[in-house]
Design brief:
The structure is a homotetramer.
Chain A lengths: L3 E6 L9 H16 L3 E4 L5 H11 L3 E6 L12 E4 L6 H8 L2 E5 L3 H12 L4 E4 L4 H5 L3 H4 L7 E3 L2 H11 L3
Parallel strand pairs in A: 1-2, 1-5, 2-3, 3-4, 5-6, 6-7
């Protein structure tokens, strides 16, 4: 069965979403598709759109778990799931995934990362992508937690690590 | 955007699941794929497996919204979503769909049909497929409800009606 | 620990909600409080308001699990829980209860009853209260299902049966 | 209508849960009850048990939103709601509350705090209670977020602030 990789990150409107950060997301999507993983994400803009765009460039499958109406899905989403659950949909993204990659992010991404770690799922943060992914990569932060995320510096490291951790 | 059709019906173990009833489900799956719809269902056995099998015979895309672990998905599911939500996942199936087709079914299917009708989504029941789909096709039952399901007698009627109702 | 009894039934706007039917709900609420049960319901109008009114007349505790904002709770609700979950909140009502009593009802109530029976929870329907509680009391309907609800004719029968079934 | 205050914090097993931290939680519960607020929490051990204990000392009402079975509620919970939703129940706690107070905490508490802030609900963290409540009180952390929690140093400050913010 194909592996499912969740990518969590900021929606559009986050000032940390520079071109460089969006390029990281696009590259992550591309690499997930290259390894024949299914991408799952929140289906909206910002990181979610960039990662789905990258996956489609390589012919991958993209699933968007939307907070309300599926018509809000970005144009790179193949399978838009309109949950009508609002932020609760964050859990479905995390529960559905074999591994979670965090890129940039604010409270919503922190919500997804924290639930993944509370559930014991493998989480990889890209420390060079700003936002809470940068924040949670710091040693003085991580000492507060027993379960720790993995830290990667590049898209290649993050995707390789994700697939290695889940056995492919 | 491709249309999403949910098919709801009995899991394996229902004595009403005769060969004829499973053939109806398989045919419905085939026809949904032929019209380029995405099939969404509960991802388990019985009707869910037969309908996904039919969709894959025609090269369609199949999404399974599982109650707990995605490893329980039947082998015809392309995208298994492990919600860890138990029966709550019924709502996600219904919320994600443009139209809902009911085949056979017991309390669980009635749960999905009832939420779809309470939400005002188009529901088509196949009256020849036994179970609650037969039951809810009866006039003396339907008089109890203001919002009523559509009734079809064959897979062709059901799938044609579903796509006509949602504008394709 | 006090027992929790869910009462499910029509919201205001259902034409079946006659004075007699509302009196049944009010009496059920009163009797639940008399037996020191906690009443849980959907918190809105119609049956939900009548049953909560009855429970407060006898000094009981009333919990309302609201679909969205807790400000929509009727005035007899002590503890309004605003879930922001829409119809998904039906599951929480059912999951929280030791036993479920159905009074009148349409698709929404059928949704709650069906999930309770699928989960194997004890369900008691008052056959004299119209709506789906009357419908599902009929033998020709019940033969479609393996798990069956209990049928009561009066509030006293229903509440006695509920507490007997759950061991108080 | 009475105000509902959620208190989020570590379950038992967290090494940061010293006697002093548990005393903070107990005092917060007492003060919420004194102001006639309804306490809502996750219903389990650690901070959840200490805060409920404090509320009952002052005769308050305590609601526990449990992840699965309500039989797991601590003995100070008046209204145990067994959601069968696992960690998803965190959202219900947050959605139900007028204000959220954080005490100590790990990933699960961070999950609740992050969703509250993403939703725009008022959040007050007690900076002297260790764990993520201490962590998120730091200026170098808070600069990562636009929406910020309020920071209190004592139970009195936290509860006063909560009620002031929500208009009582």
């Amino acid at each position: 069965m194909k592996k499912i990789i969740a990518v969590c990150g900021s929606n559009q409107g986050d000032k940390s979403l520079t071109k460089e950060v969006l390029k990281i997301a696009e590259r992550v999507g591309y690499l997930i598709a290259e390894k024949e993983g299914i991408l799952i994400c929140g289906g909206l803009g910002g990181i979610m759109e960039a990662v789905a765009k990258g996956a489609k460039e390589k012919g991958g499958i993209t699933v968007g778990i939307l907070p309300y109406d599926k018509s809000k899905a970005n144009k790179y989403i193949d399978i838009p799931i309109g949950t009508n659950l609002g932020f609760y949909r964050n859990y479905i993204i995390v529960n559905s995934a074999d591994a979670i990659i965090g890129i940039c992010g604010r409270w919503g991404t922190l919500n997804e990362i924290s639930i993944a770690l509370a559930l014991g799922k493998p989480v990889i943060l890209i420390s060079t992508s700003k936002g809470i992914s940068e924040l949670l990569s710091k040693k003085e932060i991580l000492k507060y937690f027993e379960e720790k995320p993995y830290i990667a510096e590049t898209p290649e490291q993050a995707v390789d690590l994700a697939f290695n951790l889940i056995g492919k």
